[in-house]
Amino acid sequence: MEPNEPTTISAGTSPARRPGPRPGPLVEPGSELDAEERMRYSRQIIIPEIGMVGQRRLKNAKVLVIGAGGLGSPALLYLAAAGVGTIGIIDDDVVDVSNLQRQVIHAMSSVGRLKTESAADRIRELNPLVTVNLHSHRLDVENVLELFAQYDVILDGTDNFATRYLVNDAAALCGKPYVWGSILRFDGQVSVFWDKFGPNYRDLYPTPPPAGTVPSCSEGGVFGVLCAQVGSVMVAETIKLITGVGESLLGRLLVLDSLDMRWSEVRLEPDPGAPEIKELLPSYEAFCAGPAGNSSAEGLEGPAVVSAPELAALLDERAAGTRDFLLVDVREPGEHEIVAIPGSVLAPRGAVLSGEITLPMDLEIILHCKSGGRSAEVLRFLRGEGYPEVRHLEGGILAWIRDVDTTLPAY
Question: How far is residue 347's CA from residue 357's CA, in Å, rounded to a whole number?
Fold first, then answer.
């Protein structure tokens, strides 16, 4: 392979998965632009590839953005600025101070408000000509098909695998294209999936990773400006799909290493062995949890969890010298610096699983992470290695803050 030649994943197609011809413009032109619209969008209209007809297609377009968070924030702003006529926002979360490092559509005045309402106010302030539809609830198997049917393009800015597979399967069933982005720390990925004309998300990731092995942004962190880099590419792809200009990322995956500022490209093709998507799964959470079950360490022999109040009592006993155990924080060093349970020692999950850090076998061990997922994974590993007494803190340090010490900062 030449140095700049893209990698190809899933070479070859079967008759069942053979993509059709690439589509033209996704949306028909809307009504004529009035004087205000011509002035507002003039810098875009004078681009030959867009022109007046392309701007009218944008005016007539309906785009659904899943998540008003890190990727959704720049995407919503640029969709509105570009003149997309109808923008839908689905999110059931509220704005938190920790969001503001990267979720630039929100402000301090929005803390505690629904993200959908906060984002809608900002969009209307930026461009009052845009219609904003709010869906302030969680996307699930019961509502996804009806919701997707109302829009031309879907933007997936979620940060969990269950929703990503749900979006993929629903988009395939509805025949809708969707633009997908993913970010973690300094790394970003973006592509266009459209099962009707090319690969879908399952061609890139046929199965989800084992539960707990890939941290979320709240666990692993994210370089704030990376949201803008990936989110702006997602909007560019959406505009190209709507207007039919240029070459979309359908069949290509862009990978960004923002630490070294390098983009690379991977070619994608439909997997000839992948089954056709014919229906939604009953539970995408169960699908992503895998055969090992969920993060609560269900199925392990012996007591596996300790509650936050129970841990507090155990720490009091240890301080009094009537009990001895090791409280191990399996989070990353940066998380430990933000907040830590007094008396805990840091042993990051990866270092324990790789054998870089060896924990004593002759002492009771209680593990904790942020919310319980990573500590459950380390618990299973240690039980498999023959450790006789291992438990983990149910709900992680967030449960400790909620139930024991509310003065500590959550993140």
Answer: 7
Q: Which of 174, 217, 227, 288 is the catalytic position?
A: 217
For the record, the structure tokens of 251 come out as: 């069949």
Q: Among candidates 160, 164, 261, which has minimal Cα distance to 219?
A: 160
Judged on CB neighbours under 10 Å (0-12, 13-18, 19+), 1 is: exposed
Question: What angle is formed at CA 201 by the lines to CA 197 and CA 207, rounded to 5 degrees?
Answer: 140
DSSP one-letter code for 176: -
Residue 341's nearest CA partner among 387, 388, 407, 390 is 407
Q: Point out which residues pair with 127 in neighbouring strands.
A: none
The residue from 174, 227, 288, 369 that is catalytic is 369
- What is the distance in angstroms between the CA of the first residue and the CA of the last residue of the chain? 44
Token pair 């926002």 in the structure block, residue: 89
Query: How far, in whole angstroms, is CA 400 from its chain's centroid?
Result: 26
Query: What's the DSSP call for residue 6?
Result: P
Report the DSSP pairing between strands 62-66 and 252-257: unpaired
Quick check: is 369 catalytic?
yes
The per-residue pLDDT for range 24-69, each reduced to its tens digit, is: 999 999 999 999 999 999 999 999 999 999 999 999 999 999 999 9
217 is catalytic: yes
What is residue 335's three-state secondary structure?
Answer: helix
What does the alpha-carbon distance between residue 349 and residue 210 come to, in Å, rounded to a whole number? 14
- Specify which residues 114 forms β-bridges with: 94
Asked if 234 contacts 248 with a C-beta cutoff of 8 angstroms, the reply is: no
pLDDT digits (tens, 9 = 90+) for 194-233: 999 999 999 999 999 876 667 677 777 899 999 999 999 9
Rounded Cα–Cα distance for residues 314 and 45 (Å): 68
Please name the residue that has the structure tokens 């092995």: 213
SS3 230: helix
Place of tokens 């390098």: 262
Report whether 78 contacts 235 (CB < 8 A): yes
Q: What is the dihedral of CA 150, 155, 158, 161, to 10 degrees?
A: 90
